[in-house]
Automatic annotation (TrEMBL):
CDD domains (alphabetical): HAMP, PDC2_MCP_like
Protein name, entry field: Putative sensor-like histidine kinase
Gene Ontology annotations for the cellular component aspect, listed alphabetically: membrane
Species in which this protein is naturally found: Robinsoniella peoriensis
Top-level division of the source organism's lineage: Bacteria
Compartments where located: Membrane
InterPro entries: Bact_2-comp_sensor_kinase, HAMP_dom, HATPase_C_sf, HATPase_dom, Sig_transdc_His_kin_internal
Residue stretches spanning the membrane: 20-39, 300-324
EC number per UniProt: 2.7.13.3
Ranges where the HAMP domain occurs: 322-374
């Protein structure tokens, strides 16, 4: 084992891949072929067994329905008033009564399931009715030994195969008589036996029950009696023959179910079900070769396909081994060269898989090492720029100029109370802006600043601006960057709401979600499309005149302070609304970080 491991560790990566891949793939393909063949055979056989047994159940149910119909017709005969009257006084019965009986019986025999109907008298009077679709001239209906025996039995009804007249040819019939149903007729007043009714069923009626039930292409059904004689079969020449010497008879006579029986040189699937009411055995027989013929075709196809894939695996294994190992060998050489001090090597690759990503990651690592100091200097410069941006936003000359101009207008109109209110709000606003030089303030302080800002805006835009501030109680003492809301609100008014004629609605919400503090500024302004939103975050130059630049500046301030997981994102629908979300970590003012 150690020797094998040593040999394996000593060969190249290309050979390792080839040696492991090709035998494993070939072995798996062969196993899959074998399992697929066995599985498909078993599935087809099980499916045929289920279908066969379901078909036998259908035939059994049809036999139940047939026998129930025959029994129902017998009840109609024995309860008929005319039949009772005729049997009660056979010799004295007038012609009218006989005609009524005959008409009634003739109506019953119109049923396709009844081939012959005979009413036997209890005494040898010579009187009997035979209403039939065919007549057996050799059978004297008034002199039947079995009828006399039946009168002596305790049973009031029974089914009987015509054993003494097995499939006797009926000159006026298309079929052969198979079985009779006998039922005693009792006098409705004295409850004494006055006769019996015999209803005979043709074998063709039995065949019709299953002739349209398909059992594969060459399968067939046969119905045997308790002694193994053929009761019903599509080949009429087999009727009455003894099948007790067949290879499958011992198996089906002992139990019902499915059996695999070899007959001659061919294997058959034999399914049987006992029909206990008549003591019959319903048998379905189909060659196993026919059941699995589709599986054989599938196996041949899979064998051909498997051979093709084994050959393909050899070529693919060789290609894959080379495809994987060559770039790794090349990368190894590059690493050695860089280790020797050659930092000017250009690493090129044209792949986008894991190996390509490995090249890209290695190249980025080299570039990051070279640019580390440069990036640190640039980051310090950016911090200073954003510090300046914060001071400029705190001392926004446009806002102060517009507010003073608003105060002058109110002074000219002698609105002293309004002037006092606006001046106070302006003073409170700048007091909050200065915040003793703090760069991180509580949420409630920031909301107080923005509320002063809203109050001043309402005087600048009378009867237009409506605002709402909603803050979750638990978020009031959380820390956020100072003056993050004012640029966004100003941007919403100047670039979102001023373009609409109807009411201007702004809502500021603050809540805690998933250990984060969320601030949402909603305005009902003109909105932005997706391209406009991308432009907001893609502005590269520091230009105060750019529209919406306050959003980008605030977003980068947040990221510099808290990391790339935090910042601003925008939801907007053109012509309807804009929502600007601020995401801060959940920190109280006592645990606030040191930020720009």
């Amino acid at each position: 084992m150690r020797l094998l491991r040593k040999l394996f560790n000593g060969i190249s990566l290309k050979k390792k891949i080839f040696v492991l891949l090709v035998p494993c793939m070939a072995g798996m393909l062969l196993i899959m072929l074998l399992l697929a063949g066995v599985y498909s055979n078993n599935m087809l056989v099980e499916k045929m067994i289920d279908n066969s047994y379901q078909n036998l159940n259908v035939i059994s149910e049809k036999l139940d329905l047939l026998t129930q119909n025959i029994e129902s017709y017998s009840v109609l005969v024995l309860t008929n008033k005319d039949v009772q009257k005729w049997l009660e006084g056979q010799k004295n019965a007038n012609y009218s009564v006989k005609q009524d009986v005959f008409a009634y019986l003739l109506n019953i025999i119109k049923s396709n399931c009844i081939s012959n109907l005979i009413i036997h008298t209890y005494h040898d009077t010579g009187e009997a009715f035979s209403v039939n679709k065919f007549i057996d001239p050799d059978r004297k209906i008034e002199d039947t030994d079995f009828v006399r025996q039946f009168y002596g039995m305790q049973e009031s009804y029974l089914w009987k195969l015509n054993e003494n007249y097995y499939f006797t040819s009926m000159p006026l019939s298309a079929g052969k008589c198979v079985m009779s149903y006998y039922r005693k007729i009792y006098n409705e007043n004295t409850v004494e036996v006055v006769g019996c009714v015999e209803l005979m069923v043709d074998e063709s009626v039995i065949t019709e029950l299953y002739e349209n039930i398909r059992l594969a292409d060459t399968g067939h059904y046969v119905i045997l009696d308790h002694s193994g004689k053929v009761v019903s079969y599509k080949d009429k020449g087999e009727l009455g023959k003894d099948y007790s010497d067949k290879e499958y008879y011992n198996a089906i006579s002992q139990s019902e179910g499915n059996h695999k029986i070899t007959i001659g040189n061919q294997e058959y699937l034999v399914t049987n079900k006992m029909y206990k009411k008549l003591g019959w055995n319903i048998v379905g027989i189909v060659p196993v070769a026919e059941v699995v013929k589709d599986s054989r075709r599938l196996q041949l196809f899979l064998l051909f396909l498997g051979g093709f894939f084994i050959v393909l695996t050899v070529f693919m294994g060789s290609f894959l081994a080379k495809y994987v190992s060559d770039p790794i060998i090349r990368l190894k050489k590059i690493i050695i060269q860089i280790g020797e001090g050659r930092r000017d090597i250009k690493i090129s690759q044209d792949r986008s898989d894991e190996i390509g990503e490995l090249f890209i990651a290695f190249s980025r690592m080299i570039e990051k090492n070279d640019d580390l100091m440069k990036n640190l200097l640039e980051e310090q410069n950016r911090k200073k720029e954003y510090e300046l941006a914060l001071i400029q936003s705190q001392l926004n000359p446009h806002f102060l100029y517009n507010t003073l101009e608003c105060i002058c207008g109110m002074a000219s109109l002698n609105k002293t109370d309004d002037i006092i209110f606006v001046v106070k709000e302006l003073a409170f606003f700048y007091r909050g802006v200065l915040s003793k030089g703090n760069k991180v303030i509580p949420v409630k302080t920031e909301l107080n600043i923005i509320e002063r800002y809203f109050n001043i805006l309402k005087y600048r835009y009378p009867n237009k601006l409506n605002y709402e501030i909603d803050c979750q109680k638990e978020a009031e003492n959380c820390s956020i960057l100072k003056l993050c809301l004012q640029p966004i609100v100003e941007n919403a008014v100047l670039h979102g709401l001023r373009g609409k004629k109807n009411d201007w609605n702004i809502k500021v919400q603050v809540y805690i979600e998933n250990e984060r503090v969320i601030l949402c500024v909603y305005d009902s302004g003109i909105g932005m499309d997706s391209e406009k939103i991308k432009d907001v975050f893609n502005q590269d130059e520091w230009d105060k005149e750019k529209v919406n630049f306050g959003i980008k500046a605030t977003d980068e301030r947040i990221k510099l302070c808290y990391g790339m997981d935090y910042g601003i994102h925008i939801e907007s629908e053109l012509g309807k609304f804009t929502k600007v979300y601020f995401v801060f970590p959940y920190n109280t003012i006592d645990h606030a970080p040191e930020c720009v």
